[in-house]
Amino acid sequence: MAQVQTALDSVTGAVASNSLGYTLTHEHLSLDLNSFHCDPPQPLASILKQPRITLENLGYIRQYPYSNIYNLSLHDEDAQLAVRKDLEAFKRFGGGTIVDNTCHGLGRNLGRMHDISVATGVKIVAGTGHYLAAKQTASTLAMTVEQMTDLYSKEIISGVDVNPSLNIKCGFIGEVASGWPLHDFEKKAIKATGEIQEVIGCGVSFHPGFNEEAPFEIVRLYLEAGGKASKCVMSHLDLAFVSDEKLLEFATLGIFTQFDFFGFECSYFQYDPHVDMISDAQRIAKVLKLVAEGRENQVLMSQDIHTKHRLISFGGHGFSHILNNILPRLNVRGLSLEQIDRITIENPSLWLQGKF
After folding, report:
1. Residue 166's pLDDT is what?
2. Which of 1, 2, 272, 341 is most open to solvent, judged by the fewest CB atoms within 10 Å of its CB?
């Protein structure tokens, strides 16, 4: 039977892939983005520096989410309580599994993933791998490809010792991140990912730099290292490709095409002001375009929640946004329930299956 490895595996063992249910393939349940802070516009500095999210500053934070330090951490007690409530709602509305893409360099906390899975009944799949070179220590940057493959395979096969009573196994490699142009460290991480994917057969997920050539370059390096195209997800295609032509060209590579900023409805993207963030309506149009081209078996959708303001307790849409607000719109726009299930249940299951 095909299996998927979740953060509960130290207790229950790997689960049947057909038991995942509705799955979000790119989320974060506990991370710290303080080093991602962006300076606020000067006239708004005093508002955006406030140490809490309130009705008075929420509108400003929605426009400049990376300029409020409090908003950038999902590690603190406030955030963890909000995440738990959000996952309880996700479960209540029909959600089954969350794939947590928090890897080395983002403040991964496997113990919290395990605990919140136990508390809510939501299956959580944890990731290994490395984030951007800029977020790594000097010793990590000095790692060889062989050391990386050893680390990734250990965390998937043997697990990570979180505490004396808990050994949690990762279920995929991701999100493996790179900027543009690619840093040498990032190239090593991509190569290591391809090499170990060939051996273990696990799913992998990549974060590309914001350039239309970045996804192609990542896939080239990954495939050359031995990685399998059908086990690879390219994240953030909401931002990566401006034109549908480039998106369709990329889809011919056989990679999973993921739209994972659903719910992020601010067109101004602070990390790169030259890039316009698209809307949910535009994301839906891109999904429908791929389906019309016969590519529904390559589509994945998620929300990449990584700040407080997108959680329900802080005035956001929460992890249930796609379930409650996007899937009905896809149905109205012509997708059958079978096609929706393919994208939200079957595709994630096929991607995550491995030799566990």
Report:
1. 85
2. 1
Alpha-carbon distance 116 to 124, whole Å?
9
| pLDDT on residue 7 | 76
Angle, helix 110-120 to helix 77-92, in steps of 10 degrees: 40
For the record, the structure tokens of 154 come out as 């250990």
**How much is the CA Rg of the chain, to the nearest whole Å?**
19
In whole angstroms, what is the distance from residue 193 CA to residue 305 CA? 24
The distance of Cα 289 from the centroid of its chain, to the nearest Å, equals 22
pLDDT of the residue at 12: 45
- What is the DSSP code string of 181-245? SPPHHHHHHHHHHHHHHHHH--EEEEE--SSTTHHHHHHHHHHHTT--GGGEEE--HHHH-SSHH
Residues facing 203 on adjacent strands: 172
Question: What is the reported pLDDT for 10?
Answer: 45
| 172-177 vs 3-4, strand pairing mode | unpaired
Consecutive 10-residue averages of pLDDT for the chain (356 residues): 74 72 97 93 97 97 98 96 98 97 95 94 96 97 98 95 85 97 98 97 96 97 98 96 95 98 96 91 98 98 98 98 98 98 98 86
Q: Which residue in 136, 117, 113 sits closest to 126, CA to CA?
A: 113
**Which residue intervals of the chain are DSSP H helices?**
9-12, 45-48, 58-63, 77-92, 110-120, 138-141, 145-157, 184-200, 214-224, 237-240, 244-251, 280-292, 321, 327-332, 337-341, 347-352
Are the C-beta atoms of 96 and 23 separated by less than 8 Å?
yes
**Cis peptide bond prior to 175, omega within 30° of 0:** yes
Among 85, 103, 82, which residue's Cα sits nearest to residue 93? 85
Which pLDDT score is estimated for 98? 97
Instruction: Determine contact, residues 6/173, Cβ cutoff 8 Å.
Output: no
Query: Do the Cβ atoms of 330 and 289 come closer than 8 Å?
Result: no
Classify strands 203-207 and 15-16 as parallel, antiparallel or unpaired: unpaired
Provide the 3-class DSSP secondary structure of residue 148.
helix
